[in-house]
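Lecture notes, unit on protein representations.

Consider one protein chain, 170 amino acids long.
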Amino acid sequence: MPVTLDGFLAGVGARAFRFAEAGLRHREDAMDAVQEAMMKMLAYRDRPADEWTPLFWSILRSRIIDVQRRRTFRLGWLGSTGPGGEDASLDWADDGPGPARTHDGREAYGRLVAALRELPRRQREAFTLRVLEEFDVADTARIMKCSEGSVKTHLSRARAALQRQLEDFA
């Protein structure tokens, strides 16, 4: 059980993001929902630590539902008729990447995850927290309970190992 709320939030962040992204199907909305849930949790830092998990997931779920409702409302007013009563059916252009690019992205992500699993635990933590979770060096050191110099060393070694493992993929 985490001793601090910061430790709890650091531990739950990645899972919370995956949960929000699955519910919202939009990366930026998912990041916003998780960040808002974490900010709201700060008001409950005096609660016992065993209450944090259900409280956080309840707050996050509510944020996801709020975002989904806002989307429905924003699109609902457009309706199916235009200002002059003519049929103005929505024609949403798919501005996302094509199927080949989507496949390549998934393949690259899969290769990265596989390569990360091969790293030693401390290197994997340093890379995930600094690069993927975008924590600064001081926060990463606090989360990992080591010095800032150790974080930099672990990150440097992780990057070198990943570069060796993934150089044929690029």
